[in-house]
From TrEMBL:
Residues 214-369 form the RACo-like middle region domain. InterPro entries: 2Fe-2S_ferredoxin-like_sf, 2Fe-2S_ferredoxin-type, Beta-grasp_dom_sf, Corrinoid_activation_enz, Raco-like_middle, Raco-like_middle_sf, RACo_C, RACo_linker. It comes from Sulfitobacter albidus. Residues 119-210 form the RACo linker region domain. This is DUF4445 domain-containing protein. Residues 379-648 form the RACo C-terminal domain. PANTHER family: IRON-SULFUR CLUSTER PROTEIN, IRON-SULFUR CLUSTER-BINDING PROTEIN-RELATED.
């Protein structure tokens, strides 16, 4: 008679196996993704499966209740001690008796996908660089003079097929008592290595370690440092937190920090120390928030722009401040936490994504990893708006990248009433076509400013200023309603028909809100503010336009706005302003914090690291500073929306 048929769901993989084959063995042979940390010893319970019973018409199979063996002692003991959910079995203990359909629940799959949170739509396949392995090590004896580490390595080889496993000195220092305490059974966390490094033991626990190990995805920005703490086994984000980058005291933007290092002996070292301290404070905070021991953080991935990259590493960013903007290295880096003075597990691995060029950093690489322009059939323009805009343009054929110095105006800086996005900041604006007076919404309040009770609602915060998304809408609305002409001049009250316009020195300004009766500020948009926004948006647009020239196209198929800021910009207003090229509005999407997502992908999936390194090698870098056409595009793009480029879709 034929061997019993085993069908796994959801994969649909199937095969025949002799009676008595453990389900875990069958799964391994068929390449079914079924987890195991203890190697089939009935300890870890990662191998749980659910056998079906009854008719499976789709497979033409009737499955009987005794298709798998009855519970053995190991399984019964596990159930008694820790409890198995109804219908669940341990795949390493249950053996095949008759034809059977076996479901592998998501939590028993190694390469399961985690759905990204909220606005984040894509899944990440979990395949981390550091994993846990339970092993049983041969005891030493007088006839076999090998060392404990050698026998541990043999066990890893025999039981897990791990070759050439290395161990740091601290592992050697801890290992002997741990092996004896665990009665020669231990769990080790192993960093799996890659083409450059052997697998390496990171940590060792006596017996079966039932806990979790963690990783950090860190987005090191010039203004803020944000980190996600992830469970490396499930991929789940356990906690997220952010702090201001303490380097702010050395200069708001990148170039002022580069000049600080040029002007001050030891300036770069001071900034390196500041950012590392800030990072450690953040890690402590996140550890407390998640209520975990920081020494269980064994892996970390960093994304950042080139200047932050160098300062984090303790490399003077001097060369990045002058042509030809040479990076110390553009390759991805694999380091240890103690190389960077980070207070997490002492030998935690740190991975820095590759930089694309002297002005286009690992943050842009992370955006590429998250948004995959190189897999796109249509031509996609991705802009990550910050003090520097990183711009990617491409499709399957090729991908181009550049960065463009937008300055901090989009973050509300250098705008007379500008401020960061915080409660009290104006974030939405509409101008009435008849009266030419503004109405607006502030962060933290659901009402429009012209609704009854608005002032009572905002009594707590008041109206304190205009944030980046607010100023974009403001300027675009002013242009739409004729308060502003194409070159960017605010007209007189007579020309504009708006009572909100008033003479302000040699130019006109626009009154948005007079908070003085309530003790707040008077919020206005001056012609200088308009000028700042024109410069910022012209920098962004001309970078994109230059890449389009290089690609040989006049238009793009779709636009992705990345960055926290991108999520808040109104597409329509961005286009009225001429920040982005003319595309149908439904072809403009927001990717949220794509750089942070890219960091998380690289943390949770080791293959993604090789993938992005390969992708970055193929990205063509365009240096805006040496392209004469950039200046030309910049001048044209200073007009709103543009002096020469048509915006036909906008008009319609
Ligand atoms: Fe660990 Fe089955 S593999 S309990």
């Amino acid at each position: 008679t034929e061997n019993p048929l085993v069908i796994f769901t959801p994969s649909g993989k199937r095969g025949r196996f002799p009676v008595g084959t453990p389900v875990l063995t069958a799964a391994r042979q068929l390449g079914v993704d079924l987890d195991s940390v203890c190697g089939g010893r009935g300890i870890c319970s990662k191998c749980q499966i659910t056998p079906g019973v009854g008719d499976f018409a789709k497979h033409g199979l009737h499955v009987e209740a005794d298709a798998l063996s009855a519970w053995n002692k190991v399984e019964a003991r596990y159930d008694e001690k820790r409890g198995l959910k109804a219908g669940r079995r341990l795949g390493c203990q249950a053996t095949v008796q008759k034809d059977v359909v076996i479901d592998v629940p998501a939590e028993s799959q190694v390469h399961r996908q985690v759905v990204r949170k909220r606005a984040e739509l894509r899944d990440i396949v979990i395949n981390p660089s550091t994993k846990l392995y339970y092993v049983e090590v041969k005891e030493p004896d007088m006839h076999d003079p090998s060392g404990d580490l050698e026998r541990l390595r043999d066990a890893l080889h025999d039981q897990w097929e791990l070759e050439n496993v290395a161990a740091d000195l601290h592992i050697l220092q801890e290992m002997q008592p741990v092996l004896r305490k665990g009665d020669w059974k231990v769990t080790v966390a192993i960093h799996l290595g890659d083409h450059e490094n052997n697998p390496r033991i990171m940590h060792i626990w006596p017996g079966f370690y039932d806990g979790t190990i963690y990783g950090l995805a860190v987005d090191l920005g010039s203004t803020t440092i944000a980190a996600h703490l992830c469970d490396l086994q499930t991929g789940e984000v356990i906690a997220s937190s952010g702090v201001m980058n303490p380097q702010i005291r050395f200069g708001e933007d990148l170039m002022s920090r580069v000049s600080y290092s040029m002007m001050n002996a030891g300036g770069a070292a001071e900034m390196t120390q500041a950012v590392r301290e800030g990072m450690n404070a953040l890690f402590t905070q996140i550890g407390i928030e998640a209520n975990i021991d920081k020494s269980l953080i064994v892996d970390a991935v960093f994304v950042c722009n080139p200047v932050m990259h160098h300062l984090l590493l303790g490399i003077d960013p001097f060369e990045l401040g002058q042509a030809p903007f040479a990076l110390a290295t553009s390759n991805a880096l694999r380091l240890r936490a103690d190389d960077l003075d980070l207070n997490i597990h002492e030998s935690a691995r740190v991975y820095l994504l590759p930089c694309i060029a002297g002005h286009v950093g690992a943050d842009a690489a992370a955006v590429a990893l998250s948004e995959h322009p190189n897999h796109s059939d249509d031509l996609v323009l991705i802009v990550d708006v910050g003090t520097n805009a990183e711009i990617l343009l491409g499709n399957r054929e090729k991908v181009l990248a550049c960065s463009s110095p937008t300055g901090p105006a989009f973050e509300g800086a250098q705008i007379s009433s500008g401020q960061r996005a915080a409660p009290g900041a104006i974030e939405r604006v509409e101008i009435d076509p008849a009266t030419k007076l503004p109405r607006f919404k502030v962060i933290g309040c659901d009402m429009w400013s012209d609704e009854d009770g608005f002032e009572a609602m905002i009594a707590q915060t008041g109206v304190t200023g205009i944030c980046g998304s607010g100023i974009i809408e403001m300027v675009a609305e002013m242009r739409i309603h004729g308060i502003l002409d194409a070159p960017g001049l605010i007209g007189s009250p007579e020309q504009t028909g708006s009572a909100a316009v008033f003479a302000d020195g040699r130019t006109y300004s626009y009154l948005v809100y007079d908070g003085t009766p309530l003790g707040g500020p008077k919020i206005t948009v001056t012609n200088r503010d308009i000028r700042e926004i024109q410069m910022a948006k012209a920098a962004l647009y001309s970078g994109a336009r230059l890449l389009m020239d290089k690609f040989g196209v006049e238009k793009v198929d779709r636009v992705v706005l990345a960055g926290a800021f991108g999520a808040h910009i109104s597409n329509k207003h961005a286009m009225v302003l001429g920040m982005i090229p003319d595309v149908p509005l439904d072809k403009v999407t927001s990717a949220g914090n794509a750089a942070g997502t890219g960091a998380r992908i690289a943390l949770l999936n080791r293959e993604a690291r090789a993938e992005i390194e390969e992708t970055v090698r193929q990205i063509h870098k365009v240096e805006t500073a040496i392209e004469p056409r950039f200046q030309e595009h910049f001048v044209n793009a200073s007009a709103i929306p543009n002096a020469v480029d048509p915006f036909p879709l906008l008009r319609s």
